[in-house]
Design a protein that fits this description.
Elements (H helix, E strand, L loop, with lengths): L8 H8 L5 H12 L5 H8 L3 H13 L19 E9 L4 H11 L5 E6 L6 E7 L2 H12 L5 E8 L13
Length: 169
């Protein structure tokens, strides 16, 4: 085990330069699989003391590598069985119109993700609702009424074969 007080110089240099090393990658890989994994178990896996792991995790959080800890909820169990990807075009294309749309769309609880895109459409929204009736209501009474929306096109998820939240490091 490596103790926090006796880190090799190369590891100290990586920490100063905000660079990730193989131990940081190992910690991040483990936490992406199970964010509730005790520091003692992580320490065993990466060959460090629990205190050293704790210091590293605090640094990874402080430097923004770990944004937050969450529970992944089964959307079907909570009544959001219909997932749609809706592409939205805003016109005219001005910074003000794009910013205004973005500021409003992120307030909608049904919108799980919003990405600004290149290409024909400006935004891609991941939407989770109970059913087609709820989606229709969202489309007609909320999305279509957002500022400068010109065109929308929706794709509905029929089945999901892969859904990963962890990045391979």
């Amino acid at each position: 085990m490596v103790d926090a007080d006796v880190l090799p110089f190369s590891e100290i240099l990586n920490m100063i330069n905000n660079e990730l090393d193989k131990i940081d990658h190992g910690i991040l890989n483990l936490l992406q699989k199970d964010a509730q994994l005790p520091h003692k178990a992580i320490a065993r896996e990466v060959g460090m003391s629990p205190n050293s792991v704790n210091v590293r995790i605090k640094r990874l959080v402080a430097e923004g590598y770990i944004k937050k800890y969450v529970a992944l909820v089964n959307h079907k169990k909570i009544g959001r069985s219909l997932i749609a990807y809706t592409q939205v075009q805003v016109k005219p294309h001005t910074e003000e119109n794009l910013s205004t749309f973005l500021a409003e769309v992120v307030k909608l609880n049904e919108v799980m993700e919003c990405s600004h895109l290149t290409g024909k459409f400006d935004f891609l929204l991941k939407i989770a609702v109970a059913d087609m009736d709820e989606y229709n209501h969202l489309l007609r009474h909320k999305l279509a009424k957002l500022p400068k929306v010109d065109n929308m096109e929706s794709l509905f998820v029929m089945s999901q074969e892969k859904c990963e939240t962890a990045y391979v490091l």
